[in-house]
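Q: Entry one of two.
A:
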Amino acid sequence: MRTSFDFTRLTAQERYKVMIGTIIPRPIALVTTVDEQGRFNAAPFSFFNCLSADPPILAIGVENHADMSFKDTGHNIRMTEVFTVNIVSHAIAEAMHVCGTKYPRGTDELGEAGLTAMPGEKVASPWIREAPAAFECRRHVTLELGKSRQIIMGEIVFAHYREGAVDRNLHVDPNIIDSIARLGGDSCSTIRDRFEMLTPKLA
């Protein structure tokens, strides 16, 4: 017997639990920003994906505090108009988790996690040296979803890759990226178990 839900009758927390347990796997963006005082911030987001290649747009879902004030990532992007998305590999999974701790504003999460901030090429926000790939972004548009969440779209203006991750034909090696993803609850997964499906061709 199938289970069904009327989403209009669920609470926000119930909808959240059902959605994050179903929409899996979700890639993780470790987003680095900089505030008005030049202090770096790093926070992970699994409400994240690419939306377009022309223009090159990605999006992150940023939740506000319970009192509806902006968290550091949302505040910093609003002030500086830039951010950097660092892809989380299995090797830096624990460091990413440290960055997700609710530190006081102004805390250097990268330092706490043992990660290295590298200066951006085209934006003020840093990229993480230990990440297999990083996208420097300028804010494209922000969608305010009520008072609790923002969908921030960024245009990619520069990309960094670990040596050997991309070949001359722009093929990206998933073994070098080795990214992880969020599932429901506290569970994560890797991309190490893969299979290929060729696009069917009509006769």
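Q: Entry two of two.
A:
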Amino acid sequence: MKRSSNRSSPESVRAKRRARGGWRAAPGVAIVAALAAVLTACTAPGGVPADDPRSTQIPALEEFHTQELAWEDCSDYAITAQDEKYFPLAPEAECARMQVPLDYADPAGDTASVAVVRVPARGESQGSLFFNPGGPGGAGLLGTIGASSLMTESAVTESFDLIGFDPRGVGATEPAIDCKLTDGSAEGADLLARIGSPIPTLTEDDTKELADRCAEGSGGMEALANVGTRTTAKDMDVLRAVLGEDKLNFLGQSYGTRLGAIYAEEFPENVRTMILDGAFDPSLGSQERLLASYGGFQGSFEDLAAFCATQADCPLGTDPSGWTAALQGILQPLVDNPVPAGDTELNFDAGLGGVLASFYSPDLWPLAIEGLREVQQGRGDQLLQLATGIAGISDEGQSSNMTDASIAINCVDEDLLDADELAQLREDTFAQAPIMDSGTAADESTRDKCADFPVTGELGIPYAQDIEGLPSTLVISLTGDAATPYGGAVDLAKTLGSTLLTVEGEGHTVIGKGVSACADAIAATYLLDLELPENAPELTCAVNQ
């Protein structure tokens, strides 16, 4: 295997990330994060038996399928302070690096190094359960270790090794995406501010600067071109083979549902079980998907406001007809007059990002309400804390590369929008979700931020269509999911021929989080026994009371 020329040690990667330590919340980062997007032989080479799962792979990838992972303690894979804090929650976890082609069209060329974590089953293992916690740009190592700590009583973690990995360009996987937006430079912060608004208005100079910064910090244009979801799905299949798994068991949440659907499209014959929780709609193009999400945000805001109206001194008031105007009255002045927040400031984008972050769980609503009260009093600490939490920034101000990776992955995956489409998107967004409106006039210059990326539109929308040979899969959604609206789950289930499990309640994603014991039980039985209730393909559960 040819080593990638830009491979570095975990220590050097960690030091590079920590060089950003003084940056806390550049304008726009919270918005970016919140919108926060895959041959048989009698005897295989290398002495692998013909019945080994690795013997059925593409010959050019054989050396990757037969590699042995060197499992070790995960401490050297901790990139951020959050990693260092939460990795010890699973002392039994082991980490390793897996080599994969940087470009699957050139498997003899440079390699990428994928960071992998394994949390062994608490009992006798019956195989591996692959897990992706969401994104794009979400750290798989941290998410998997966190999930294992929440599932200590689950029959699933009793019987399955939990497997996670940092996807292409993310976290400890190398090369990691670094667009130099959060490097402490004024130029990076200014560019992030311009691209970070819900509907950015950009020039050709802006988009060229973004592509150049991302390429320069990430190992070149070739590395940047190979961070898309289809490439990550291929990595996941290599990992399946390396672990000796004949079939894949997969739990994907949020963006992980897109990754899972693409894997199902690329490798349907390699799927045993697949749970897609908090679903991306496979039929929506970039414009439609953003509008659906923004509309979901508006609905979730109204739910938050209704809760607020039951509390004393609600900063949004008690009249439903005035809730949006009240929020705008609190946040829009931050465009020109940010308020102090810790050792930085809270502007409109970060303030809105904090409110949006609270839509991921009703448990966060009181924090958002308190944050709005603080802004009325001239402080932005609480909303900043919510915003930076979803953006992958620790309390110490140290950031993961979630924002940069999210931008790059979405650029490679999704179709470009032209100027007319962007103008229409802005108009439609503020009509459907007026909470997103900063109150500023649109700039006539408008260009898709991804216009100068080396690859765009790689995903192909609609995707995962007319798949043959895919076994039974399970799609799950909360009815009040703002980030990935319920309608997307309905469409994904129809597309894959899946059983749809509807969970009535608010929030984003269900399994393993203590949200619904009913849903957890159905998921466990499906994973362990390949069984679904008799009233499938449509099931309903409630959230825990």
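A: Comment on entry two: The first strand starts at residue 94 and ends at 101. Residues 295 and 432 are 6 Å apart (CA to CA).
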